[in-house]
Amino acid sequence: MDLTEPNLPEASPVTGHPRQLYLLFFTEMWERFSFYGMRALLLTYMVTELKFDEPKGYAILGAYSGLVYTMPMFGGFIADRFLGYRKAIIFGGVLMTIGHLVLAIPEAWSFFYGMAFIICGNGFFKPNISSLVGTLYSDNDPRKDSAFSIFYMGINIGAALGGLLCGYVGQRISWHYGFGLAGIFMILGLTVFYLGRKSFGEKGLPPSAEALRRPIFAGIPTEIFIYLATLLVVPVVVSLFREYEVMDYLMFGLGTLSVSYILFISFQLDRVARFKLYAALILIIFSTLFWAFYEQNSGSLNLFAIRNVDMQVGSINLPALAVNNFLPPGWVVILSLFFAWLWPALNRKGLEPSTPLKFGLSYVLLGIGFCVFYLACRLNTDTGVISLTPFVLGYFFIICGELCISPIGLSMVTKLAPGKFVALMMGIWFFSSACGEFLAAKIGSLMSVPEEVVDNPVLSLPYYADILSKIGIGAIAIGIFFILFVPVIRKWMGDVR
Fold it and tell me: How many domains does the chain have?
C-alpha cells in the first residue's frame, strides 16, 4: 500500500500516524471531558436536588441520552450535503459550549435548556469529528483500526478526567460548579480544533462553497439558514423533556425510518457495495443492545455505587459518583494502549479476529463483567454492601468488551459505507447508541429503589442484583448467538476485514 497516496496526510516518522490524528485526539479529549463530566451528574442531580422520583429521573435521562445520540444522524447528513465536517464541528462545539454554561446557571429553567443546546451541538460535533479521522487513511489501511483505538483513548482520557473532576465538584461542592467546569473544558476543546483546522488542507471542507452561499429561503443563505433552523430545534427538545412519554414513539419512528432509508439507498449501489452496507447495518443493529446493557454506568450504576459499594480506601472515603464515572474511561485509557498494539500485531500474523467476531466477543466480555457484579451482590446479602475490588474488576471485563465494539465500530462504518454516505452512516451508528441509551434507561428503571429503602443497603441490594444477573446472562447468550453467524456477515463484507 502506498502511504504517500495523493490527498492523504503525511505520516509522522515517530508514530506512523498522521499528525492531524493527534489534533483530533486532543479536540475530542476536551470535548468528552465536558460531555461525560456533565452527564455524570444528571441522574443523581435529578434524584437528590430536583427531587424527581427515580422512574421520572430515568425517563428524562433516557430522553436526553436518546436525543443526544439521535441528532448525529441529522448532523452527519447535513455535513455530507452542505456544511462539510469542519464547519459542522465548529458549529456543534459552539452550541455545546452554550449548553454547558447555561447548565451552570442556578435557575429552574436552565436545566432543560442547557441539555437541549448540548443535544443539538453534539449532533453536529460527534459524527463529523469521527468521520474526519476516517479521511486521514485509505479504506484498507491496516493502521485504521489502530488509529481509531488511539482516537478512542483520547475520548476516554477526557471522559475519565471529566467524570472524576466534575463528579467530585458536583457531589462534594456544588452541582452547578460541576456543570460550569464542564463548560470551561468544552471551550478548550473547541479552541484546539479551531486553531489547527487549516492543517487538514482540503479535507472536511463543504462539498460546495457556492451552494452554502446560495439563498434558500427569504434571501437567507443556506449556511445561515441551517444555523437558524438548528436554534429553533432547541425549544422543541425542551418540550420533549417535559413530555418525555413521546420519546417512545419518536425513537421507534426514527429507527424504522433510518433502516428503511438505508435499504432504499442500498438499491442504488452495485451488488458488492450493497452487501457491504447490509453488513454494516446488521452490525449497527446488534450494537444497540450492547449499549443498552453497557450504559447502566451512567444511570443505575451511579446510584448502585452510592448506595451499595464500599468506597472506603484506608482512611479515605472516595466520592462514589466520581469513582463510578472514572472507572470505565479509566480502564479504557489503560486497555486502549494494549488493544492499539494487539490488533496490528495479530494482523501481521494473520490472526486478527474479523470485525463481526469482535462484536460477538464484546457481548461475552460484557456479560462476564455484569456477572462479577452479581456474584459480589450474592456474597454480601448480609451487609448489602460490596467491596470496591469486584466493582473495579467487573468494569475491567465490561471495558474489554467495549474495546471490541466501539472503536472497531467507528472504523467499520468508514470502511463499509460508500464514500458519499460515510457521515450519514456514522450518524446512524450513533443513533444505534441513542436507541441503546434509551433502552438503558428503561432497564435502569427496573432497578428503581422505593423511597423508604434507599438508605438501607440490605433492602436496596436485591433491586440491583436481580437485573444485574439477567443482563450478564443475556449478554453472554447474545454474544454466542452472534458468533454463530460470523461467516455469513464476513461474506457480505467482501474484502473488508
Answer: 1
